[in-house]
Amino acid sequence: MSNQGVRGGDSDWNSVDREIRIEGLRDKITRIAGGEMFSGKVEGCDPDLEEAFLEQVLALELHGFECPFNCLLEEGFDLPAPGRLNDADLTVKLWEVIRALAAKRLFLSSTDHLSDRELYVWLWEDALRQELMGFGLPFGNCHLDVLGGCSEEDLILRMRYYADDEERADWAAQFPEFPMPPRQKPPYKRDCRLPRASV
What we know:
By secondary structure, the protein is mainly alpha-helical. It has 2 domains: 2-63, no CATH class; 66-193, no CATH class. The chain is built from 7 helices and 4 strands, in the order H-H-E-H-H-E-H-E-E-H-H. It has helices at 2-33, 47-63, 68-74, 87-103, 116-125, 152-162, 165-174; strands at residues 65-66, 106-109, 132-133, 142-145. Helix 4 packs across helix 5.
C-alpha cells in the first residue's frame, strides 16, 4: 500500500513539474514575442506533446529569422561570386551549396528549368540573402521553391514545365484569361537528384 502511494505521489509530482515547465515556456514565449500568447488548450492534449511543441515555438522565437547566405559564411563555407567560377567549378560549387543547405534542413524544388549557372546566380544573388524563419534549427524543414514567388512569370513557368494535365486544366478553368503556355519538358533534370526532407 505504501509503495502504491509512492508511485502515485511520483506521478503527481511529475505532472506538477510538467505543468510548471509548460507555464514557464508560455511565459518565456510571451515575453520574447512582446505580447500575449494564445494559451488555449485542446481537450485531451497530451502534456508531453504540448511541452515539446512549446519548446519548438520557443526555439523559433529565440532563433528568429536567419539569412542562409550569412549563416553559411559564418561557418566558413566558401560562396564565391558566380562570375569567379568557370562552368565546371560552378557545377561543383552548386552541389556543395545544395548539400550544405539540406544539412541545415533547407530543400530546393522546381529547379529543372534553370541551368546550373542560372540556379547558382539565383541562389547567390537573391534566394540565400532572404531571411528565413527557422533556418538551421534541428527540427522542421524549410522549402525553397524557385517558382514560389507566384508572379505571372513563375506561374507560366510552372504550367509550362511542372504542372500535369489535370493541374493545367483546373488552372485554365479557374483563370480563363491566363496565358496558358504549351506544355514542355524541362531542359534540365536536377530535381530528381535533389536531397529530400525526411519525414
